[in-house]
Amino acid sequence: MAKILEKQVLRFDLVAVKIEAPEISKKAKPGQFVIVRADEVGERIPLSLARISPEEGTLGLVIQTIGVTSSKLAAMDVGDEISDVAGPMGHATPIENYGKVALLGGGFGAAPMYPIGKALKEAGNTVTSIIGARSVDLLVYEKELGEFSDKVLVSTDDGSKGLKGLVTDALKQEIEENGVDWVMAIGPAIMMKFVSLTTKPYNIKTFVSLNPIMVDGTGMCGACRVSVGGKTMFGCTDGPDFDGHLVDWGLLMARQRTYLEEEKLAMENYLCNCVPSATK
Ligand SMILES: Cc1cc2nc3c(=O)[nH]c(=O)nc-3n(C[C@H](O)[C@H](O)[C@H](O)COP(=O)(O)OP(=O)(O)OC[C@H]3O[C@@H](n4cnc5c(N)ncnc54)[C@H](O)[C@@H]3O)c2cc1C
Ligand code: FES
């Protein structure tokens, strides 16, 4: 059981919570994640660590409401207890002095970038954080990333704040104007794919935090198989960070789509079995 100590609604679909987790917070490192079950009958879902505080014995999680489990978690309140939190899982992000680093966060991805970016800054890097959204009212985490970043660049599709365009346009501009030595992206697969395609011609090492379907998170079930550099790897035990230039993005996205199609099929079967034919 992990009690929710604080809760903040960041956006209509994003909730930040601080939870009690004394044991995990002592061992956790930036880039790792936990597997969470909202209640005893719930599914297990992976969530990245957005804050790690061993002094307080707490962890911060940012949840994007997508389906059943994320909605259940987002609906919980201060004082409620999350049934299970297991971790820390996965490898930590390699923190070194790379020089000039650019960090790109999309959706919930800006949140786990916080502990990674802070550690990179402490290791001596010049940190540029790049965030984007369709429009200014959907932007999150600008202030938080500004706490340690040398610069936060903003892009919006409609030009309501910062550069008019995508995060990859802001990244390209930063590479050409100031130079970038190392890049990390966390967010939807399509965004990480295009960040990797943007940096490839410049030969800039690009880390991505992959989000395949995970079940046990311990390398036992094989659900999180990804292909990296032609080798089959497990997102949970070999990752979640991988070299974005070597990831087979087509396969990753096809596996994510299969899951959605299976969900749709399950729902159709359910309706076929449960709904009287006259109402189908
Ligand atoms: C290493 C890792 C870290 C993540 N960190 C965060 C985070 O910090 N915040 C956040 O909001 N989300 C994070 N995610 C994504 C999050 O796990 C999914 O959004 C969540 O599982 C959706 O579950 P659901 O029941 O709400 O939605 P569902 O309706 O069950 O599924 C909606 C979509 O979510 C994804 N998904 C569903 N189940 C899983 C699963 N077991 N593993 C991975 N993806 C799944 C699939 O793409 C699916 O199509 C992370 C995923 C991974 C792999
Ligand atoms: S989640 Fe089961 S092997 Fe990775």
Explain this structure to me?
With 280 residues, the protein is an alpha/beta fold. The protein has helices at residues 22-27, 68-75, 113-122, 142-146, 167-178, 189-199, 249-274, and strands at residues 2-11, 14-20, 33-37, 44-48, 51-53, 58-64, 81-82, 84-89, 100-105, 126-133, 151-156, 163-164, 182-186, 205-209, 225-228, 231-234, 241-243. The protein has a seven-stranded mixed beta sheet with strand order 12-11-10-9-13-14-17. A five-stranded antiparallel beta sheet has the order 5-6-2-1-7. The protein starts with a strand and ends in a 6-residue tail after the last helix. The protein binds flavin-adenine dinucleotide and FE2/S2 (inorganic) cluster.
Write the layout of secondary structure elements.
Elements: E1 2-11, E2 14-20, H1 22-27, E3 33-37, E4 44-48, E5 51-53, E6 58-64, H2 68-75, E7 81-82, E8 84-89, E9 100-105, H3 113-122, E10 126-133, H4 142-146, E11 151-156, E12 163-164, H5 167-178, E13 182-186, H6 189-199, E14 205-209, E15 225-228, E16 231-234, E17 241-243, H7 249-274
Parallel strand pairs: 9-10, 9-13, 10-11, 11-12, 13-14
Antiparallel strand pairs: 1-2, 1-7, 2-6, 3-4, 3-8, 5-6, 14-17, 15-16
Helix pairs in contact: 5-6
The structure holds flavin-adenine dinucleotide and FE2/S2 (inorganic) cluster.
Residues 33, 43, 45-48, 62-64, 66-70, 108, 112, 211-214, 235, 240, 256, 259-260 line the site of flavin-adenine dinucleotide.
What is the gist of this entry?
With 280 residues, the protein is α/β, with parallel strands linked by helices.
